[in-house]
Amino acid sequence: MTATRVLADGLAFPEGPVVLDDGSVLVSEMAAGRITRVCAGGYTEPFALTGGGPNGLGRLPDGRLVVCQNGGSRFGLGAWPYEFDGSVEVFRPVGPPEHPARPSLQIVAQDGTVTELTTTFRTRSGGDRPLVRPSDLCVDTHGGFYVTDGGTTRGRERIMTGLLYGTPDGDLREIVYPLEMPNGIALSPDGTRLYLAETRTRRVWEFELSGPGQVRRARGLATVPSGGALNIGGADGVSTDPEGRVLVATLGTGGVTIFSPDGELIGAIPAEDPMTTNVTVSADGLTLYLTLASTGRLVAVDDWRNAAGI
Predict the structure, then answer these.
(1) Which of 54, 169, 182, 308 is the most exposed place for a label (fewest CB within 10 A)?
(2) β-strands 134-139, 145-149 pairing
(3) 31-39, long-range: CB within 8 Å, 24+ apart, which pairs?
(4) What residues does each domain of the chain span?
(5) What pLDDT does residue 3 have?
(6) Helices and strands, number each (H, E), in the chain
(7) Who contacts 121 (Cβ-Cβ below 8 Å, separation ≥6)?
(8) Cα(138)–Cα(151) distance, rounded to whole angstroms?
(9) Alpha helix locations (H) across 220-295?
């Protein structure tokens, strides 16, 4: 990878990077049930113990974190993406956890105290349903947040899920249903559009918003190219930069795929880890951060636009 700095290694399946004002980065460690601060000086320190499987993180205007608690998994070496000839063996979720947590949204105070915000959401028809496996989220300028629930597969059955909108008082409602394994999610710089990746289909949706949690219209923006073992891959975490470009953490090939606001494929930065789970960009747009989950690393790419050929 071009101009890459390894900020931390030895992380337990990192996800959900959040860049703080002091230059440090918070990441969730899904295989360890904790949130860790990767400090600008190159060392790590514990931030919060969530239990289970913390996934996506979002920072509220008051500095607290919202955490997608997916309930946890058992991790180990396993074939990816499927147990076919030509697959690769990586460190990944391989089964149900020994000590599961309730799937929920959690709040983490600035001192690291963890509380449960909600375990349920209100469907579009008005009933309440439990969260299945919350995946990722992003916070808007109103202090609310958009949440994806990735669902799960049990035997030969798949639980379908969708897009949710929540507020810090615990209200959580469904605004789009159904979606196929919704995962990464990010807002455009002006907050008028929401981008969402479906992992399995590699599709990136664009939702035009008319207000907080209000979808006016939708379209398929782009499809992430396949690659890696078995030429399959998938789309994971999503971010945008100050120019409105859409960056998608890419499973299979590894690294990040970059689209223009109009959905044109304009660049890519490869990584040697096929489980590139999430991406974010610094506030000034100059530095890109990637979580390389199966190898346990958080890396930064300086001058990433030049590295991507943009």
Answers:
(1) 169
(2) antiparallel
(3) 31/73, 31/75, 31/91, 33/72, 33/101, 35/65, 35/67, 35/108, 36/8, 36/11, 38/7, 38/8, 38/298
(4) 52-282
(5) 74
(6) 1, 30
(7) 128, 129, 131, 149, 164, 166, 172, 173, 174
(8) 18
(9) none
Q: How far is CA 181 from CA 37, 158, 178, in A?
A: 28, 10, 9
> Is residue 307 within a helix (H) or strand (E), and if so which, with residue range?
helix 304-307
Do β-strands 256-259 and 88-95 pair in parallel, antiparallel, or remain unpaired?
A: unpaired
The residue written with tokens 């394994």 in the block is 181
Residues (pLDDT < 50) of the chain are: 1
Amino acid 36: pLDDT: 98
Give the domain 52-282 fold.
Answer: Neuraminidase (2.120.10)
Name the residue with tokens 């390894």.
6
Q: Tell me: the pLDDT tens digits for 245-270?
A: 999 999 999 999 999 999 999 999 99
Residue 157: beta bridge partners?
Answer: 154
Q: What is the pLDDT of residue 2?
A: 55
**Tens digit of each residue's pLDDT (9 = 90 or more) over 145-162:** 999 999 888 888 888 899
* Residue 213 near residue 207 (C-beta atoms within 8 A): no
| pLDDT score recorded for residue 125 | 87
